[in-house]
Amino acid sequence: MDIIASKLTFSFSVHVTEVTEKNMVALLNLTKGINQDQAIITESILEGGYGNPIKFIEVSFTKTTTIDKIIKYISSRLSDEDKEYLGSEFENRFDSKRNTFFLRFDKNAIYMDKLLITDSSKIIKLAIRLRAFTKQANYKSFLIERGIIT
């Protein structure tokens, strides 16, 4: 295996008008069947434009088998249109310095247990960090093989 997904991080903001628990339920909709005890959760308090507190939550997974299960689950839920869109946007969504691929899911759709790629601001962001064991690594092919993009 030339490439592995070495870290998977979900991140999202919770504004003062939102309920943290509702956001966590949305996250559970993205990680069904995964033992949440394996998650590393960090929470920060930021200040919004009018001085309102904003929670910023990151939930990371580092165990390869868990990451693979989450990627498989998400790829099974993405529409063919979203996979094609992500594939066409690969260069814009892949950070070659950190070997990380980024997706943005519509938070409101996730609440309803639907998975939609979006560029709006109410999102749960997913960062998939990849690690290569060869210089000729083809990260795009890896994501195609995993069913995230086409």
Name its key features.
alpha+beta, six-stranded antiparallel sheet
Q: Can you describe this structure?
A:
The protein is an alpha+beta fold and 150 residues long. The chain has a single domain, classed as 50s Ribosomal Protein L5, Chain: A, CATH 3.30.1440.10. The chain has six helices and six strands, in the order E-H-E-E-H-H-H-E-E-H-E-H. A six-stranded antiparallel β-sheet has the order 2-3-1-6-5-4. Strand 4 and strand 5 (100-106) form a beta hairpin. The longest helix is centred in the middle third of the chain and has 14 residues, at 64-77. The chain is globular. The mean pLDDT is 93.
Gross morphology: globular
CATH architectural name = 2-Layer Sandwich
Query: What is the CATH class?
Result: Alpha Beta
- Spatial separation of the terminal alpha carbons: 20 Å
Structure summary, number of beta strands:
6
Order of helices and strands: EHEEHHHEEHEH
The name CATH uses for the topology is 50s Ribosomal Protein L5, Chain: A
Uncertain stretches of 5 or more adjacent residues: none
Structural class: alpha+beta
Q: What would you give as the CATH superfamily?
A: Ribosomal protein L5
Note the beta-strand portion: 25-35%
Helix segment tally: 6
Range of helix content: 25-40%
Largest sheet: 6 strands, antiparallel
Side-by-side strand order of the widest sheet: 2-3-1-6-5-4
Radius of gyration: 15 Å
Determine the mean pLDDT: 93
